[in-house]
Amino acid sequence: MLEARDITVRYGSRTVLDRVTLAVEPGSVLGLGGPSGCGKSTLARVMAMMLRPRSGTVTVDGRTTPGWRQRAPRDLRIRVALVYQQPRLAVDPRLTLTEIVAEPLAAAGRPDPARVSSLATEVGLTPDLLTRKPHEVSDGQLQRACVARALTLSPRYLICDEMTTMLDASTQAHLVAVINAYRAQTGAGILAISHDTDLLTRWADHTSSLGAAQAGEA
Ligand SMILES: Nc1ncnc2c1ncn2[C@@H]1O[C@H](COP(=O)(O)OP(=O)(O)OP(=O)(O)O)[C@@H](O)[C@H]1O
């Protein structure tokens, strides 16, 4: 289970999350909705151990992270992958799509071109696209690369933060299908964050909502 417990986050004097608790079960899709600005992306970053909360804990399969960002143990961090809403802000513009997909494997010191190639095929990237750089492809094509990149190290949990909001319906359907297949094969747990209640109803086994009250002043 990926569990956030009693998470409180403040930006300056503003409390964005106030003792929020949320758990993602292995093998299931938890949908998380809530109004714009209520703190969904903030919670996603905390659960991926990329943002240190003011208080609260994140536990991955029974292990509570002792630190955040680089201070979280690497083997714990790579259990949780995050796909962002805006792929252009999530990639190095100098890299080709192949290099983007391969990044986590390269960083781990174990390049695996066969895995990169099979993930690229799964997400629907053709060989001609793989040699291009981000400015030469569409948002949908780039997001396909970001989904493949998120799966390279076989995370136990995948957080999709408004992953398909900027995409056309067919790319959205394809990427949701890829993630569902990954979940079925591996038993991974998915946190699907979206303000699109139709998408969450179709995709998630359970849904939860961060209330507007979370966005109050401290
Ligand atoms: N680094 C930051 N510094 C200060 N305020 C921030 C920071 N990041 C987010 N905020 C503010 O915190 C609030 C919650 O932001 P967050 O992105 O987590 O909400 P959200 O529910 O994901 O919103 P949306 O659905 O619009 O993406 C917003 O008011 C946002 O402006």
Automatic annotation (TrEMBL):
Gene3D superfamilies, sorted: P-loop containing nucleotide triphosphate hydrolases
InterPro entries: AAA+_ATPase, ABC_transp_ATP-bind, ABC_transporter-like_ATP-bd, P-loop_NTPase
Domain ABC transporter: start-end pairs: 2-218
GO molecular function per UniProt: ATP binding; ATP hydrolysis activity
GO process annotations (BP): transmembrane transport
Keywords annotated in UniProt: ATP-binding, Nucleotide-binding, Transport
Pfam families hit by this protein: ABC_tran
PANTHER family: D,D-DIPEPTIDE TRANSPORT ATP-BINDING PROTEIN DDPF-RELATED, TRANSPORT ATP-BINDING PROTEIN
Family: Belongs to the ABC transporter superfamily.
Stated name of the protein: ABC transporter ATP-binding protein
